[in-house]
C-alpha cells in the first residue's frame, strides 16, 4: 500500500485514476458477460470482485490519497464495485435459470420410452390349475358355469336340500351377510360352489354338463389345511340315464388330468344332503402308489402311508334337488362332484401349508412356471 498522500494528487495513486478504474470496470463487466457457466462466473467473481482483485486492491489504496480526494475516489470506486457486483448477480440469475432449464430437459424422464427389464410375473397356480381342470371338462363337452360369491341362502342351502334347521348348515361354517338392520339379510358368502348347480339347472336347457370353478368362504380359523377363503371346482351333469358309472368316469377323467393317467380312484359312502347316494372320492397315492402300505414298505408323507388320498365329495343329484329346480327325476338323473383346488394343488405339488397358496408371493407362483 502507498504512503499517505498529504497533497491532492490522484495521479500519484495510479490505480485510483478514473481511467484505470474505468478500465478495471470494463474488464470486470466483460469477464462477467463472457462467463458461459456458473463455474466461469465464479472464476470471474474471484478475479474481479475477490479480495485480491484489482478493484479491491485499488480500494485499499484510498487511504493513501490526500483527505480531500478520498471521498471522490471512494465514490468512484464504490460505484464501480456496485456495478460489477450487480452485473455478477444478474449474470448469476441468468446462468442459474439456464442451468435449471437444461436440467429439466436433460434429466426429464420419458415415461413412454420402452424399458428392457421387465421382471416376469406369474399367474397364481390356483388360477392356472383351476383353468386347466375346467379346460379338461370343456374338451369333454362341459360348459363353464359361474355364480355370485355373495349368494342367496336359498341357492346355497334350501334348494340343495339343506333346510334352515338342518345341521348341514353348521357343517359348513357360514359367513352370513348382515341386513340393513343388522339382522340376517338372506344372503351369505357362498360356502361351496354347489349353488351354481342350482343356477345352472334353473336356467340352462337339458341335458346339462357344467363345470364351475370359483371362490368360497367359510367361517373357519386359518391353519395349515384350512382357510376362510378357498377355491372349489364342481362338476354337474344332468341327463337321461346317468348312473354312478358315469360319475366314476368323470372323476377318473379329473384325476387323470390333474395327476396323470394310471392312478386308481375309489368311492366310499359319505353324506351330502344334495346327493343321494353320496360318496367321498379318493385316489391312489401318486407318490408311493400304495407301496407305503405294504409290510416293510417306505413311509409316505403325502398319504401318511394310507395309500389313498381323499380328494372330493360326490354323488348322484338328490331327486329333491332336481324337483326344486323343476326337473322330472323320473326322466332325468344327475351326478355331481366338488373339491378344493388349493387342497388338490397341495397334494399334487407337495405343498404342506395352505397359507403358501394365499400369500401372493410371486416366488411361490413362479415355482409353478410362468403361464400366459
Ligand atoms: C362341499 O363343499 C360339497 N359342496 C362338495 C360336493 C359337491 C359334494 C358336489 C357332492 C357333490 P366339503 O364341505 O367337503 O363339500 O368341501 C369340499 C372340499 O372343499 C373339501 O374336500 C376341501 O378340499 C375343500 N375345502 C373345504 N373347506 C375348506 C377350507 N376351509 N379350506 C380349504 N379347502 C376347503
Topology, please?
Blueprint: H1 18-34, H2 38-49, H3 54-60, H4 67-106, H5 125-139, E1 143-144, E2 150-152, H6 153-156, H7 168-171, E3 175-178, E4 184-189, H8 195-203, E5 208-217, E6 229-239, H9 244-259, E7 265-272, E8 275-284, E9 308-317, H10 319-324, E10 333-340, H11 341-349, H12 362-366
The chain binds adenosine-5'-[phenylalaninyl-phosphate].
Kindly state the number of beta strands: 10
Examine the secondary-structure arrangement and name the CATH architecture of the largest domain: 2-Layer Sandwich
What portion of residues is helical? Answer: 25-40%
Average pLDDT, rounded to a whole number, is 89
Largest sheet: 7 strands, mixed
How many domains is the backbone divided into?
2
Strand residue content: 15-25%
- Spell out which ligands are present: adenosine-5'-[phenylalaninyl-phosphate]
The first-to-last residue Cα distance is 85 Å
Shape: rod-shaped
Number of helices: 12
- In N-to-C order, the SSE pattern is HHHHHEEHHEEHEEHEEEHEHH
Structural write-up:
The protein has helices spanning 18-34, 38-49, 54-60, 67-106, 125-139, 153-156, 168-171, 195-203, 244-259, 319-324, 341-349, 362-366; strands at residues 143-144, 150-152, 175-178, 184-189, 208-217, 229-239, 265-272, 275-284, 308-317, 333-340. Helix 1 runs parallel beside helix 4, helix 3 runs antiparallel to helix 4 and helix 5 (125-139) crosses helix 9. The chain has two domains: 10-106; 125-366, BirA Bifunctional Protein, domain 2 (2-Layer Sandwich). It has twelve helices and ten strands. The radius of gyration is 44 Å and the shape is rod-shaped. It starts with 17 loop residues before the first helix and ends in a 6-residue tail after the last helix. It has 372 residues and is of the alpha+beta class. Strands 1-5-6-10-9-8-7 form a seven-stranded mixed sheet, sandwiched between helices. It has a three-stranded antiparallel sheet with strand order 2-4-3. The model has no long low-confidence stretch (mean pLDDT 89). Adenosine-5'-[phenylalaninyl-phosphate] is lined by residues 172, 192, 194, 218, 220, 226-227, 230, 232, 234, 272, 275, 313-315, 336-340, 342-343.
Amino acid at each position: 500500500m502507498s504512503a499517505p498522500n498529504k497533497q491532492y494528487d490522484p495521479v500519484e495513486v495510479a490505480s485510483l485514476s478514473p481511467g484505470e478504474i474505468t478500465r478495471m470496470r470494463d474488464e470486470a463487466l466483460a469477464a462477467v458477460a463472457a462467463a458461459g457457466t456458473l463455474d466461469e462466473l465464479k472464476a470471474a467473481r474471484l478475479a474481479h470482485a475477490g479480495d485480491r482483485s484489482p478493484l479491491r486492491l485499488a480500494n485499499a489504496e484510498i487511504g493513501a490519497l490526500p483527505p480531500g480526494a478520498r471521498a471522490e475516489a471512494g465514490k468512484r470506486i464504490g460505484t464501480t464495485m456496485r456495478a460489477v457486483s450487480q452485473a455478477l448477480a444478474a449474470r448469476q440469475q441468468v446462468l442459474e435459470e439456464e442451468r435449471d432449464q437444461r436440467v429439466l430437459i436433460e434429466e426429464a424422464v420419458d415415461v413412454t420410452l420402452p424399458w428392457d427389464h421387465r421382471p416376469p410375473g406369474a399367474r397364481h397356480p390356483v388360477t392356472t390349475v383351476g383353468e386347466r381342470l375346467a379346460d379338461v371338462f370343456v374338451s369333454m363337452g362341459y360348459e363353464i358355469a359361474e355364480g355370485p360369491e355373495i349368494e342367496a341362502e336359498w341357492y346355497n342351502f334350501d334348494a340343495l336340500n339343506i333346510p334352515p334347521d338342518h345341521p348341514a348348515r353348521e357343517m359348513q361354517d357360514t359367513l352370513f351377510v348382515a341386513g340393513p338392520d343388522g339382522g340376517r339379510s338372506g344372503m351369505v358368502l357362498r360356502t361351496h360352489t354347489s349353488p351354481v348347480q342350482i343356477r345352472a339347472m334353473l336356467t340352462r336347457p337339458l341335458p346339462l354338463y357344467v363345470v364351475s370353478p370359483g371362490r368360497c368362504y367359510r367361517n373357519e380359523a386359518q391353519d395349515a389345511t384350512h382357510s376362510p377363503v378357498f377355491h372349489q371346482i364342481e362338476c354337474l351333469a344332468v341327463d337321461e340315464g346317468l348312473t354312478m358309472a358315469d360319475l366314476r368316469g368323470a372323476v377318473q377323467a379329473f384325476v387323470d388330468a390333474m395327476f396323470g393317467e394310471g392312478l386308481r380312484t375309489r368311492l366310499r359312502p359319505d353324506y351330502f344332503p344334495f346327493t343321494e347316494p353320496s360318496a367321498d372320492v379318493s385316489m391312489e397315492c401318486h407318490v408311493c402308489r400304495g407301496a407305503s402300505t405294504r409290510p416293510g414298505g417306505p413311509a409316505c408323507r403325502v398319504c401318511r402311508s394310507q395309500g389313498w388320498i381323499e380328494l372330493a365329495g360326490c354323488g348322484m343329484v338328490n331327486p329333491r334337488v332336481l324337483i326344486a329346480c323343476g326337473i322330472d327325476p323320473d326322466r332325468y338323473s344327475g351326478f355331481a362332484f366338488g373339491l378344493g383346488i388349493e387342497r388338490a394343488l397341495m397334494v399334487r405339488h407337495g405343498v404342506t401349508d395352505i397359507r403358501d397358496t394365499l400369500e401372493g408371493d410371486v416366488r411361490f407362483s413362479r415355482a409353478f412356471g410362468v403361464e400366459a
